[in-house]
Specification:
The structure is a single chain. The protein contains 24 helices and 27 strands. By secondary structure, the protein is an alpha+beta fold. It folds into 5 domains: 163 residues, Beta-Lactamase, CATH 3.30.450; 139 residues, Beta-Lactamase (2-Layer Sandwich); 163 residues, GAF domain (Beta-Lactamase), CATH 3.30.450; 159 residues, 2-Layer Sandwich (Heat Shock Protein 90), CATH 3.30.565.10; 121 residues, Rossmann fold. The protein has a 5-stranded antiparallel beta sheet with strand order 3-2-1-5-4, sandwiched between helices. The chain has a 5-stranded antiparallel beta sheet with strand order 7-6-10-9-8, with helices on both faces. Strands 12-11-15-14-13 form a 5-stranded antiparallel beta sheet, with helices on both faces. Helix 9 packs antiparallel against helix 14 and helix 21 packs parallel to helix 22. The longest helix is centred in the middle third of the chain and has 61 residues. It is elongated.
Length: 914
């Protein structure tokens, strides 16, 4: 098959030979068909048909590359004997031409020839016996081939011209397709622009609506209304609330089909909430009212989850495409901005309201503090309890209430009204009359009695008829209460020393105000301050009373100390004169001894009281028979009893009465009670002492026929410095500490003491009850220690020469061998020479104190067991501890009790004799 070259196929030439020009009229209709073709298959068929007719070819085959890697093939066989042509069209998915890309314009001549040769080579087997094969060129590129079979008209120029017209038609068709594509793209751009404008307009309108100041729920409602029907057939907006979703708004098209109640929450909404991502889902509807397509968009702004917008399509043909999802995301973004704004505005409003409330509370608190400070100043301006309470009532009216009444109890008595204040004076008078005519019963279940009984405030914010009925005890009382025109009542307790002593009642009558909890707190605070002021007034009164008692005690102490000094001074003067008889000298000595014992007892009582008060006293308990203690105590009190010419009666039960006690202290208790009875009984009276067993203990009773105790004095008779004012001249004397000592010493032993009197002139009775350990209740008396006769070697060491010498003379009169020393070193040397059995050693010595002397005596090698007895004016517990640590066996205070000294010496002699 011959292949024409570029020179032979001048496809650009439009000239025809003279023979061909004669055929143009009949070719024109055929060629005009090329200009009317609008599709590539039609163009291929038309080219094949025109070529077939122009050259009277037996067949024509046309290949045109239509799509990338594809081609259209049209084959036409000429009909026999005037019969119809036989066209055949095929589509090749892969182009059999294997055309190369179009070459550059400057190299198209040579490259086109190469491209044509390659195409002919690839189609060689398909061309068969072709007469001519010509290219179809489009914009300089090979787009196809035309193969012509044997022809009756051998007119290659005409064939080339016709093929050229086909190339032009192919080029025109390409231009038209390009123009169509451009027009389609332009139309699509216009449609896209209009859709974009519609979206922007929709979003602008939505943004404008949502930007209006609204609440969170209103924004949700507007969001649902905007989304339907533009984005979906239904819209639900959920907001998180208490760990679940609440449907805040919903909408549907048509609007009349919307539910009256919130529809159930779809699972897709929870999924979007938890994942915080947009979720789209297609669902097969199970019923006519169920959605076909769902889209859930979370509403998230500033890492805060406002809720979820859920869109639903009811129409099965409508689906959420990417554009819908993008539009829903943009709408959700604008909703989030509005929700953020509303949330921030709501938070700002709450913060502003909280700040305003805090400011109001602060101002109220400042005002309350100023009022309470002023109240404290006013309440503390008086030291009279009733005046304080009257000031309290005046303070609260009208600042806290329209009226105020105060009821107060003195010393546990029945509450009495002490103040009544009201803005209307006639109502204040009416309150006084009600308190006098209808005093409240203590057991009333409401009102002032209940507050006094329970200590709990009572507030009636609004007074009803039933409340007035409960507060009244009779129709007349009810009528009077109605005249007060009570609208609100507040009653608070008045506390003093952890005890309710009164009640403060505030009322509102016609001001329209009602008591709140804040008013109750202020009233309770104010009542507390008033109670503190009353307590301070009472403390001041108590302090004044204590000061009076102290002055009285000091006066009596001076009196009691001067009384024994006077006879001692006279007796010493008589002895110094040396002109008296032996009887008068003996009497002087007795006066000095008796008055000295009296002064020592006064000093001992004061020291004992001080030690007990400071908790420094120590009991030296031992097993002792109470009968023996009673006998010794009556012996001690015998001088006072004999001086007043009393009859002393002692009644004891049979058998011993053993107790575990400090015998000295129990003797002191009994002696004080007997002396007290003798002192306050007129001469010739009877003082009775009884001892008996009572339950698991013992009871001592000291009874007299004296002037008795007034009832008002019984409650405080054991208090310090308290004395019965029995006589204006106070001839009985005393310091008012004896009964206080009795009470405290008895309590230290675990017992109790009580006083009783029928009144003035009817005598008095004191009962002391002491516990007895179980193992002592039936125990027999221990055998009395045997004493042996004989003298002791006694060393007296005291820097007071008179005290040392007189004590030495006394000891010698008792049959002992005595030496004296007057400082520590001298006493130590004398002890080494004398080797005494007993050393009576003062502690406050010159050159070497008594404690050091005792240590050195105890440190001597082979030192015999000498009994060291401290004689000192220091009698505190720490003084006794230091003396025992230094080695002393006994600690006696000056002036020494001679009976105690005798017992110590007898114990030493008994041990030495044994």
């Amino acid at each position: 098959m011959p292949v024409p070259d570029a020179a032979t196929l001048d496809v650009n030439s439009t000239s025809t030979a003279g023979g061909e020009s004669a055929q143009l009229p009949e070719l024109l209709p055929l060629l005009s068909l090329l200009s009317e073709v609008r599709e590539l298959p039609s163009l291929a068929r038309t080219i094949a048909h025109v070529v077939l007719r122009c050259v009277d070819a037996a067949w024509v085959r046309v290949w045109i590359e239509a799509e990338p890697q594809g081609a259209i093939e049209v084959a036409i066989l000429r009909g026999q004997e005037g019969g119809p042509d036989q066209p055949h069209t095929m589509w090749h998915p892969r182009s059999p031409l294997r055309l190369a890309p179009p070459p550059p314009r400057e190299a198209r001549g040579a490259d086109m020839d190469l491209a044509l040769r390659r195409a002919l080579g690839s189609l060689g087997p398909a061309l068969g016996e072709a007469w001519q094969t010509l290219p179809l060129i489009d914009d300089g590129s090979l787009r196809g081939l035309v193969a012509v079979g044997p022809s009756q008209r051998q007119q290659p120029e005409l064939l080339a011209w016709v093929v050229r017209q086909g190339s032009l038609a192919l080029e025109r068709l390409g231009l038209e397709e390009a123009l169509q594509d451009a027009r389609g793209r332009a139309d699509e751009e216009v449609r896209e622009r209009r859709r974009a404008e519609a979206r922007l307009g929709f979003l602008a309108e939505a943004g404008e609506i949502l930007a209006s100041p609204m609440s969170l729920d209103a924004i949700c409602e507007e969001l649902a209304r905007i989304a339907v029907p533009r984005l979906a057939d239904r819209c639900l907006v959920h907001v998180p609330e208490r760990n679940e979703l609440r449907c805040a708004a919903w909408a549907r098209t048509p609007p009349e089909a919307a539910e009256s109640e919130a529809p159930p929450t779809p699972p897709i909404s929870m999924q979007a909430l938890h994942s915080r991502r947009i979720v789209a889902r297609e669902e097969g509807a199970q019923g006519p009212d169920e959605p076909r397509s769902l889209l859930a968009v979370p509403l998230i702004g500033r890492d805060f989850l406002h809720g979820v917008m859920t869109l639903a399509m009811d129409d099965g043909t409508r689906r959420f495409d990417p554009e819908d999802i993008s539009l829903a995301r943009a709408l959700a973004h604008r909703a989030v901005l509005a929700l953020d704004k509303a949330r921030l505005f709501s938070e700002a409003q709450r913060a502003r309201a909280a700040a305003e409330q805090e400011s109001l509370v602060r101002r109220a608190a400042e005002e309350r503090q100023r009022f309470l400070a002023e109240a404290s100043r006013v309440l503390s301006s008086s030291l009279d309890a009733q005046e304080i309470l009257r000031n309290l009532a005046r303070l609260v009216v009208p600042r806290l209430s329209d009226g105020c009444v105060v009821d107060f109890m003195e010393a546990g008595q029945v509450a009495e009204r002490v103040a009544s204040v009201h803005q209307a004076p006639e109502l204040a008078e009416l309150a006084w009359e009600l308190a006098e005519q209808y005093p409240p019963s203590p057991d009333w279940p409401v009102g002032i009695p209940r507050v006094l009984r329970t200590g709990i405030s009572e507030r009636l914010a609004v007074v009803r008829d039933s409340d007035l009925d409960a507060l009244s005890e009779s129709p007349g009382h009810r009528r009077k209460l109605g005249e007060l025109r009570l609208e609100s009542i507040l009653t608070v307790p008045l506390w003093v020393r952890a005890r309710v002593v009164g009640a403060v009642t505030l009322v509102h009558s016609e001001s329209g105000r009602h008591f709140s909890r804040a008013d109750q707190a202020v009233a309770e605070d104010l009542a507390g301050r008033a109670g503190l002021a009353v307590e301070n007034a009472r403390l001041y009164a108590d302090l004044q009373e204590e000061d009076r008692r102290k002055d009285e005690f000091l006066a009596m102490l001076a009196h009691e100390l001067r009384n024994p000094l006077a006879p001692v001074q006279v007796a010493v003067q008589l002895l110094q004169q040396g002109k008296g008889s032996a009887a008068s000298d003996h009497h002087a000595h007795e006066v000095i001894a008796r008055q000295t014992r009296h002064m020592a007892r006064l000093v001992d009582d004061l020291l004992d009281l001080s030690r007990i008060t400071r908790g420094k006293i120590e009991l030296r308990r031992e097993r002792v028979d109470l009968h023996a203690l009673i006998r010794r105590a009556t012996d001690l009190a015998q001088p006072q009893v004999l001086a007043k010419r009393h009859q002393l009666v002692v009644e004891l039960s049979d058998g011993p009465m053993w107790i575990d006690a400090d015998p000295v202290r129990i003797e002191q208790v009994l002696a004080n009670l007997i002396n007290n009875a003798a002192k306050y009984t007129d001469p010739g009276g009877v003082v009775t002492v009884q001892a008996s067993r009572l339950g698991g203990g013992l009871e001592l009773v000291v009874r007299d026929t004296g002037i008795g105790i007034a009832p008002e004095m019984l409650a405080g008779i054991f208090e310090l410095f308290v004395q019965e004012k029995r006589a204006s001249d106070r001839s009985q004397g005393g310091l008012g500490i004896g009964l206080t000592l009795v009470k405290q010493l008895v309590e230290l032993h675990g017992g109790v003491v009580s006083a009783h009197s029928e009144g003035f002139g009817k005598g008095s009775e004191f009962r002391v009850r002491l516990p007895v350990p179980t193992d002592m209740r039936e125990e027999a008396a221990p055998p009395a220690p045997q004493q042996s006769a004989g003298s002791l070697r006694v060393l007296v060491v005291d820097d007071n020469v008179d005290a040392a010498d007189t004590l030495a003379e006394l000891l010698e009169s008792w049959g002992h061998v005595v030496r004296s020393a007057h400082d520590g070193l001298q006493g130590l040397e004398e002890a080494q020479r004398f080797e005494p059995d007993v050393v009576l050693l003062d502690i406050g010595l010159p050159r070497m104190d008594g404690l050091e002397v005792a240590r050195r005596l105890r440190s001597r090698p082979g030192e015999p067991r000498t009994v060291l007895v401290a004689l000192t004016g220091y009698g505190q517990a720490e003084d006794r501890a230091r003396s025992l640590e230094a080695g002393f066996d006994h600690h006696l205070t000056k002036p020494v009790d001679l009976d105690t000294l005798v017992r110590v010496l007898e114990q030493v002699r008994a041990v030495g004799g044994a």
